[in-house]
Fold these 2 entries.
Entry 1:
Amino acid sequence: MHTESAPNAALVNVENVSWRAANKSILNNINLQIPSGKFVGLIGPNGAGKSSLLRCLYRFNRPTLGKITFNQQDIWQLKSEDYAKHVAVVLQETPSQFNLSLYDVVALGLTPHKSLFSSTTQSDKQKITQAIATVGLEQQCNQSFESLSGGEKQRALIARAIVQQPQLLIMDEPTSHLDVKYQIQVMELAKSLGVTVFASFHDLNLAAAMCDELVVIKKGEITHTGTPLQVLSENMLAEVFEVCAQVTHHPQLSKSGSSIPHITYFYGY
Ligand SMILES: Nc1ncnc2c1ncn2[C@@H]1O[C@H](COP(=O)(O)OP(=O)(O)OP(=O)(O)O)[C@@H](O)[C@H]1O
């Protein structure tokens, strides 16, 4: 398979995807492109279909209709181990890791790249140690994964993704249990990897600050796409999220120098 994409070419293409479960239409005719190298946020109210769409992208849900391509190849035509080499997933609920140490969990990122029974090389060990240092968890290296705090667990899973060296990082609400500092830290860490990221958010101000592009989904359909400035309008917030809000500008500019929208919510409506 191709492993390189030109910057801004679509790494992922979602074409006319619908997904039904329990006799209900959950996703309805989704069309979406995720450009290579961009940080794309998926936002929408509870039950809109964010996790369902992300699950289609990491092959947990098989679309009922339509097609998803990765580097122009249908993801269901790829061998699962090939897809796993290129796509890392960080979820909201940290899975139980059977008494593994933080180091062991991060080392799991190598699994898609290794053949069965092959041993860990010196260079593998270096990659693991380096990733742990990148997320600032050297002190916790031998601690059991289960004993880490929520923020440390999420950072460990990002370290696992760093070791995996994916082209695409999918994150489903990875910060919802974290305090403000870790919310920012985990997302900035994901951004610093320089890979394509597709992440769902509930915190719209965090999404505005982190994302190059936003996709809005409501009742299984995409309603808006564009830059945070284009998408996060007071009208959209009223229509899609049913809140009364004022959108102003954040005092900081984004790294690319563009204005970051900032939402202030009004109460009592
Ligand atoms: N396997 C399934 N079987 C039946 N219904 C499902 C299944 N998976 C999801 N749904 C339903 O699909 C709808 C969308 O769920 P989904 O988890 O994708 O929404 P979401 O936007 O991620 O929501 P939230 O913000 O609350 O996490 C919900 O009504 C949910 O109950």
Entry 2:
Amino acid sequence: MAAHNATHAPDHASESVRAREIDAEQTHLDRVYRRLEEKIHEAEFLMDDAAKRGQVGTPGALAERDAQVFQAGVHLHRLNSEYEDFLFGRIDLLLGKDGKKGPDGAYTSVEPAEGAIVDNRARIAETLHIGRLGVLDADYSPLVIDWRAPAAAPFYRATPVAPGRVVRRRVIRSKGRKVLGVEDDLMRPEITATLDGEELPAIGDGALMAALGRARSHTMRDIVASIQAEQDMVIRAPAASVTEVEGGPGTGKTAVALHRAAYLLYQDRRRYAGGILIVSPTPLLVAYTEGVLPSLGEEGQVAIRALGSLVDGAEATAYDPPAVARIKGSSRMQKLLRKAARAALDLSPAGAAPTQCPAGQLAFGDDEETAPAVRTDRLRVVAFGSRIELDADELRAIRQSALGGTAPVNLLRPRARRLILDALWSRSGAGRRYTDPELVAEARAGFDEDLTTETSFQEFLDAWWPELTPRGVLAAMADEKLLGRWARRVLNPREVRQLARSLGRLDASGHGPLSVHDVALLDELQQILGAPMRPARPREADPLEHLTGLEELTTYADRNGGGRGRRERLEEERTDYAHVIVDEAQDLTPMQWRMVGRRGRHATWTVVGDPAQSSWSDPDEAAAARDEALGTRPRRRFTLTVNYRNPAEIAELAGKVLALAMPGMQSPKAVRSTGLRPRFALVGDGAGSAGESALAAATAAEAERLLGEVDGTVGVVVAMHRREQARRWLAPLGDRVVALGSLEAKGLEYDATLVVSPAEIADESPAGLRVLYVALTRATQQLTVLSAGRDQPDAAGVPDLLRD
Ligand SMILES: Nc1ncnc2c1ncn2[C@@H]1O[C@H](COP(=O)(O)OP(=O)(O)OP(=O)(O)O)[C@@H](O)[C@H]1O
């Protein structure tokens, strides 16, 4: 933790020293921009030149041209993106142990040379500026070091306890091309250091506190200028295998995960051209975080997806009450879905069990409306002049035998077809007419050909072994009687009823509102059924890809119009990633772990979470599913210990719920305090609609009061069933206020938070106390807890759950 632990020098510098230091940084920034402009011109020239070479056809010229286009495209893509604080940091370093320089032109040694400090006096031997991208001067000396480069690591890692070569660490604040201020931390306050003969001054109040004090908007900001040492260790951890990060609320897990994605791309762009997937629990958190990577200069290869949007063509919009969520998320569903997918074959529209099959119960491929009215309880064919028939029992036996394999159900159809032909052939007795095996084989080939080219035979197959869709099977499970049969020894009758009712919101073809849990079931079914056999979509030719074969240029093209749609489609089609980052991992249900696991079978992983915030009721079951998804890959574990979000006053109150929810679990240490204690408010008495309107009035009044207190956003957290109500209550207050169901608050933060009826939130589900802990840890400045009768508040309005 660099800035946090740093001994901060009092601001001795006079205004003129401050102005001089700002001027010096301005001069450097001007130089950087001049160099950037030169590079832009160079890149444009190269692109132009490369286009001309395209007309020369020799292989050598083409290879050279491709390399040039690639380089120029990378430069243009990066340089064309104007960043507000392109340059944000600087370190002043002592002479290194050896004289070696890295590829970025900086000395590589971490430790100072012997004799670098004499009698507590030292000379600054190297000054490095840190920015969002690396920029070399025309003579290859480093003007700006990329924040992800090894040479930038001391900017984040140096502390007064282990300062290495760093004497002064400076954060530069700028807007556009203008430097506004600097904040310094001295890592070796005991020494007097000189730079170019002048004493090194220290200015400002430290960068971290400045960053934390800023008002929050509806989107997250990057933290490149103030990443702390323990966070930096995670961001720069080697990519191999699995990196697991735990830490309490506000410790920067989400921020670290996003910065790690940018770091991995910087380290090994080619490898991660295979894509990085960031899985977020809710669309709200996706919207909150998705601006961070572009601000770090990365967007092309990273897909941030909510759990409910991981399956193409499905989008979770519905909410499942906890009891239903528990059934759908449980790993017991695997067995049930396997059974349902196989049994669903029996439900063909004219199948052997028509009474069990409400019309249109299943979707058959794309043309469900024109499903043929073919009998599937017997098969009659005419071959070699005689009639052959298979009855219902024989067909059932054939189906059972075909399903004996483990292959996906839709892919077993050719096998079933072969077994039917075998049975018909044997019934025909034709094989016995020949003794010569060659003649037998010839007759059999003719027999098969005659039958399989018959339209009626194909129609029978289509009806008897229809192509099942995940949605169709899910919809079939809404029939309680059928579901009860399929779920025998897996779910109890009450669970069967709850599940069937919940799936009843889907129409016969499985369309209708899906929940985040349904999406994981669809993914599992997709796996069980296998991809429907469709003609491959013709791939669109991309002129730039044709030129270079390299992803970076595609990103450049996307930025410059035209290519974006294509990139989004590529993301949609991609199901296997090179690296998977799971945010709020404690919340994934076993079925969701299976869904996410399938997207990273060959990936390396970063998994961040906090068990104390888990809204899943059976953590052991989820842990087992997580182990299965991550396999036997070795794991590297990190813990983040400092809460950067909540002031100590709010963290302390939340700690009371933590003690109830997870006895013995340590709260992270809050890094600052505001002196403002959380406020307790009460809803007036009243039952029924009077009580409801009192709650509405008190919620709106307190939200309005908080709006007056803070510059940024106010989050109002209510129990899930009150979400819609609360949105209506708060609508007149404008868009600085957001109403959130308790489960939607995950990962988000607001300047002020109003938590409405803690008891109601805690009673919502078996994990309710942990969900309440999440709600209480969303505020960066102020927190109000509003209690109603069920909260049993004391005279001061403190609800029972939050009393000592
Ligand atoms: N080093 C830092 N410098 C400045 N701000 C930071 C730093 N680390 C974290 N923050 C800020 O602290 C807040 C909390 O970070 P983040 O949301 O990543 O925490 P989290 O561990 O994911 O929290 P939760 O578990 O509650 O979702 C964010 O506003 C983030 O920008």
